[in-house]
Specification:
Blueprint: H1 3-10, H2 16-23, H3 29-39, H4 47-50, H5 55-59, E1 69-73, E2 76-83, H6 86-91, E3 103-113, E4 116-117, E5 126-131, E6 137-143, E7 151-152, E8 157-164, H7 167-170
């Protein structure tokens, strides 16, 4: 805090702790809400509310490295590579030995279907969330490394998001939750 900010705090004795904190410019009401939401139990928004743009959407999310898209839920952001072609979906995360923090792969399918995933030649355990065309998480499955056990959507899905095992639990992404930032599905796949 600068000396000027400290003097400003001294001039605001009746605003209480929140006024003093906000006056520093370090914490905004939006930043506090995001911090609190990240620590709260999972909250499922009504469909209409989930579609409202957020400041992160409006400004673009710079937390994801180049080449990855930001997928946002009220509980936080996942950065994902996009596998939208047959070849990229077949390869998936095979032969990788690690994933970056909050990074994974989004599989984009041309049609809604009961898609299934397996872990052939995938060296790290993963969790997969199956997501419908409206961005609602259908179900989440835990997948052991290097197995051929199929894991599938319980209802027709358009997307599957693979993250390190346990990521969805740690970040409170749950079935029924909404995901924003999903790419549109190309009809020429």
């Amino acid at each position: 805090m600068t000396a000027q900010q400290a003097q400003g705090l001294a001039r605001i004795p009746h605003r209480g702790w929140w006024g003093a904190l906000a006056a520093t410019g370090v914490v905004s009401p939006l930043r506090l809400v995001r911090w609190l939401v990240g620590r709260a139990p999972a909250v499922v928004l009504p469909a209409g509310l989930a579609l409202l743009p957020t400041p992160v959407q409006a400004a673009g999310d710079t937390r994801c490295p180049s080449g990855l898209i930001a997928l946002q839920s009220i509980q936080g952001v996942a950065c994902a590579e996009v596998a939208a072609t047959e070849v990229s979906r077949e390869r998936g995360l095979m032969f990788r030995t690690r994933l970056g923090t909050d990074q994974g792969m989004l599989f984009v399918f041309a049609q809604n279907d009961l898609h299934r995933m397996w872990m052939k030649n995938t060296l790290i355990p993963l969790s997969v969330a199956f997501i419908d065309a409206q961005g609602t998480i259908i179900n989440i499955e835990e997948m052991a490394a290097a197995t051929l056990t199929p894991h599938g959507a319980t209802q027709p899905a358009r997307y599957a998001l693979e993250m390190t095992q346990g990521w969805f639990d740690r970040h409170h992404w749950v079935p029924g939750g909404r995901v924003l930032g999903l790419p549109p599905v190309s009809l020429d796949q």
